[in-house]
Automatic annotation (TrEMBL):
InterPro entries per UniProt: PInositol-4-P-4/5-kinase_C_sf (IPR027483), PInositol-4-P-4/5-kinase_core (IPR002498), PInositol-4-P-5-kinase_N (IPR027484), PInositol-4/5-P-5/4-kinase (IPR023610)
SMART domains: PIPKc (SM00330)
Name of the protein in its database record: PIPK domain-containing protein
Organism lineage: Eukaryota, Metazoa, Chordata, Craniata, Vertebrata
GO cellular component: cytoplasm; plasma membrane
Organism: Amphiprion ocellaris (Clown anemonefish)
Length: 382
């Protein structure tokens, strides 16, 4: 058996995380120091077991944990208790998602819908390590963000193969049916879902599709709209400061009226339309990720809305919106398949690298604030 078989990989992930998170609990809490971002802890887990590690049925492997204290701090900041993290990731089976992106990454989802484990390339893992101090500083100033919430970075080494994994928040809960899913960049160049994608049972559409399907956009009350825009603007400025571009807004739309017609509450699993027992909102939700005083978000995050943000279509259909910014690790500096040639980069390096992330952010924000999200117009008293 090699670790490339799915069940072996899932098993090794769970063993490794179980070992390192368990190990961390004995370490006292303290402030994160600069050097904590560069620590890599490594443990060898032979299949026959050792005095530190359990025996297992997989090939021998080494498990590396990057910046364990920094990530513990992030988890803490997002209200994730070590026991819950362990329980979600280790005690319940991981669900393999069938290729949701074109990235060639493997994705696993925890049974409780909270966490996604994604395999990343070496350069993406390296980039995340470089990002950590700035990411930390930003989260400290502003925990309400739609940027990805990174909870752990790990590497499994076995038989000469390295498999790097990042643990992140899951933006679209499975327990709420997404009637529409979009990956939006604010660009119109080749931004239509392929025919192959459209044929899927739950396709992910793109910018041009969104404009066809919701040409009027999605309407929010003024306060929610302002909070959402403030959050997106702030997040985009952060990404721009890291010279990151090519990220997307992942947007899930749940049509409330439709799910009632289909005979169920928003949590549509189960024949009686109720969410399976134990499906509760544990961590950061869309509602809690946008600016605002926080109290409103907590009041609105019930087990029925799963933390979705209330919105309407121009026809007053009620919606719940789930969203997050994704794909921030394919940083600009690494993107080789740019729309312009390498020659342009070589000759015109500065102007390109300085302006492009800013241009990307501005275009992204303009699209979101005008085409996608709109403010409900108060009906004038006639």
């Amino acid at each position: 058996v090699t670790l490339t078989t799915s069940s072996a990989l899932k098993g090794a992930i769970q063993l490794g995380i179980g070992y390192t998170v368990g190990n961390l609990t004995s370490k006292p809490d303290r402030d994160v120091l600069m050097q904590d971002f560069y620590v890599v802890e490594s443990v060898f887990l032979p299949s026959e077991g050792s005095n530190l590690t359990p025996a297992h049925h997989y090939p021998d492997f080494r498990f590396k944990t990057y910046a364990p204290l920094a990530f513990r701090y992030f988890r803490d900041l997002f209200g994730i208790k070590p026991d819950d993290y362990l329980y979600s990731l280790v005690n319940e089976p991981l669900i393999e998602l069938t290729n949701p992106g074109a990235s060639g990454s493997l994705f696993y989802l925890t049974s409780d819908d909270e966490f996604i484990i994604k395999t990343v390339q070496h350069k993406e893992a390296k980039f995340l390590q470089r990002l950590l101090p700035g990411y930390y500083m930003n989260l400290n100033q502003n925990p309400r963000t739609l940027l990805p919430k990174f909870y752990g970075l790990y590497c499994i080494q076995s038989g000469g193969i390295n498999i790097r994994l990042v643990v992140m928040n899951n933006v679209l809960p499975r327990s709420v049916k997404m009637h529409y899913k979009y990956d939006l960049k604010g660009s119109t160049y080749k931004r239509r879902a392929s025919r192959k994608e459209r044929e899927k049972s739950s396709p992910t559409y793109k910018d041009l599709d969104f404009q066809d399907m919701h040409e009027e956009g999605l309407y929010f009350d003024t306060e929610t709209y302002n909070n959402l825009m403030k959050t997106l603007q702030r997040d985009c400025r952060v990404l721009e400061s890291f010279k990151i571009m090519d990220y997307s807004l992942l947007l899930g739309v749940h049509v409330l009226d439709q799910s009632q017609r289909e005979g169920g509450e928003p949590g549509q699993a189960g024949s009686d339309g109720r969410r399976p027992v134990g499906q509760r909102v544990l961590y950061s939700t869309a509602m809690e990720s946008i600016q605002g005083d926080g109290k409103a978000a907590e009041a609105l995050t019930t087990d029925d809305t799963m933390g979705g943000i209330p919105a309407k279509t121009h026809k007053e259909e009620k919606l719940l919106i789930f969203l997050g910014i994704i794909d921030i690790l394919q940083s600009y500096r690494f993107i080789k398949k740019l729309e312009h040639s390498w020659k342009a980069l070589v000759y015109d390096g500065d102007s390109v690298s300085v302006h492009r992330p800013g241009f990307y952010a501005s275009r992204f924000l303009k699209f979101m604030s005008t085409s996608v999200f709109r403010k409900t117009q108060r009906k004038s008293a006639a």
